[in-house]
Amino acid sequence: MLVRDRMSRKVISRTPERPFTAARTLMHQYNIRQLPVVRRQRLLGMATDRDLRSAPATAKTVADIMTAEPVCIRPNAAVDEAPRVLRRHKIGAVTGVVGFDVCSVVAPAPRRP
User: Fold this and answer.
1) How confident is the prediction for the chain on average, in pLDDT?
2) 77-86 burial string, b = 16+ CB within 10 Å, else e?
3) N or C terminus: fewer CB in 10 A for the chain?
4) What gap in Å lies between CA 87 and CA 22, rounded to an integer?
5) Does the pLDDT at position 103 exceed 70?
6) The domain 3-106: what is its CATH number?
7) How high is the pLDDT of residue 33?
8) What per-residue confidence (pLDDT) applies to 71?
9) Could you tell me the residue ranges of all domains in the chain?
10) Which residue in 7, 32, 29 sits closest to 94, CA to CA?
């Protein structure tokens, strides 16, 4: 099985110029913890719930809080590679990319109470 068989295909993203408070609202609305930061489908960074919580008082835009150069995975990678990448980098999600274009977000399934 490949990453493409398990990835979320509907990618919710924001551009770096957007207010970071809009990113917070969007993440809350869709119950997501990672938000790819893109320009014309090109991945520039990743804004996470941790980035939002630790945002400096001077932060105004998504670019001010995002993690540049996020960890990525190719959709044709073996699906068992994704958890290894998450553990190796101590992150909660990887962005699926083809070239530099965002095509997915791969994250563990949410835990159920």
Assistant:
1) 84
2) beeeebeebb
3) C
4) 29
5) no
6) 3.10.580.10
7) 86
8) 84
9) 3-106
10) 7
Q: Which are the contacts of 83, defined by CB distance < 8 A and separation ≥ 6?
A: 108
Q: Is 111 exposed, middle or buried (0-12, 13-18, 19+ CB in 10 A)?
A: exposed
pLDDT in tens, 46-97: 998 889 999 888 999 999 999 888 888 888 889 888 888 888 988 887 777 7
Structure-token match 């609305």, residue found: 29
For the record, the structure tokens of 17 come out as 């110029």
Give the SS3 label for residue 54.
coil
